Amino acid sequence: MPFSNFEKIRDETDLMDFFKNYFADAVALMGKDLLIKEYFKNPKGSLVMIKADPYHYKDRCIILGDAAHSMVPFYGQGMNCGFEDVRILDSLFSEFNVKANSTSGETDKELEQALKAYTDRRAKDLKAICELAL
Questions:
Q1: Phi, psi at 56, each rounded to 5°
Q2: Which end of the chain is more exposed for a tag (fewer CB within 10 A), N or C?
Q3: What pLDDT, on the 0 to 100 scale, is given for residue 107?
Q4: Residue 88 in contact with residue 126, Cβ under 8 Å?
Q5: What is the pTM of this model?
Q6: At what angle do helices 12-22 and 32-41 cross, to 10 degrees?
Q7: On the CB side of 45, how many CA atoms lie within 13 Å of its CA?
Q8: Cα–Cα–Cα angle for 55, 61, 63, nearest 5°?
Q9: What is the DSSP letter of 44?
Q10: What is the pLDDT at residue 51?
C-alpha cells in the first residue's frame, strides 16, 4: 500500500474510514478505542531494506544480521536469517580451521579465507530473500 494512503489519515474519522475500507473485520477484533489510541501514538515510517556486498573486510571484520541484510518484515525471516548467518559462519570457522588465538595486528589467513567464503556463500541467498520479502 502506498505510504501516501497513510498520510491522508489525519483524524479519527479518516482512520475509521480507512480501516472500514481495507480491514473491516480487524476493527471488531482490536476495538475502536485501542485502534485509535495506538495508531496516533505510534509514528509511521518507511520500511528499509539493506543489501551489502561484501559482508567482510579482509580478516578484520564481518557484518551479520540486519547490519548486512535488513529486510521488510512480510516473510518474518529477518531473525531466522541472522541465526543462519551465525550457523554458517561457525561452520566456515571449522572448515577453515580458524583459531581464536591471533595476536592483535597479525594477519590471520584462515580467518580471511573463512570471511571471504562467508560473503561468497551468503550473498546470493541473502539478496534473494530480501527481494522475495517485498
A1: -135, 165
A2: N
A3: 75
A4: no
A5: 0.67
A6: 110
A7: 6
A8: 40
A9: P
A10: 82
Q: Give the alpha-carbon dihedral of 66, 71, 74, 76, to 10 degrees.
A: -30
Side chain identity at residue 94, one-letter code: S
Phi-psi region of 92 (alpha: psi -120 to 50; beta: other; left: phi over 0): alpha
Burial code of 109-126, b = ≥16 C-beta within 10 A, e = fewer?
A: ebbbbbbbbbbeebbeeb
Per-residue DSSP letters for 57-82? Answer: ETTTEE--THHHH---GGG--HHHHH
Angle of CA points 80, 61, 110, to nearest 5°: 100
Could you tell me the maximum CA-CA distance found in the chain, to the nearest angstrom? 65
pLDDT tens digit sequence for 76-109? 888 999 999 999 999 999 999 998 776 666 778 9
